[in-house]
Amino acid sequence: MTTAQIIEIVLLALGLAMDAFAVAVSSGVTLRNMELRHAMRIAAFFGFFQAVMPLLGWAGGRAFRQYICAYDHWIAFVLLTIVGGKMIYDARRPDDDAVVSDPLNVYVLFTLAIATSIDALAVGVTFSFLEVDIWHSIGVIGAITFVVSFIGTQIGKRFGHLFENQLEIFGGLILIGIGLKILIHHQFFGG
Question: Where are the domains of the chain?
Answer without folding.
Answer: 3-189
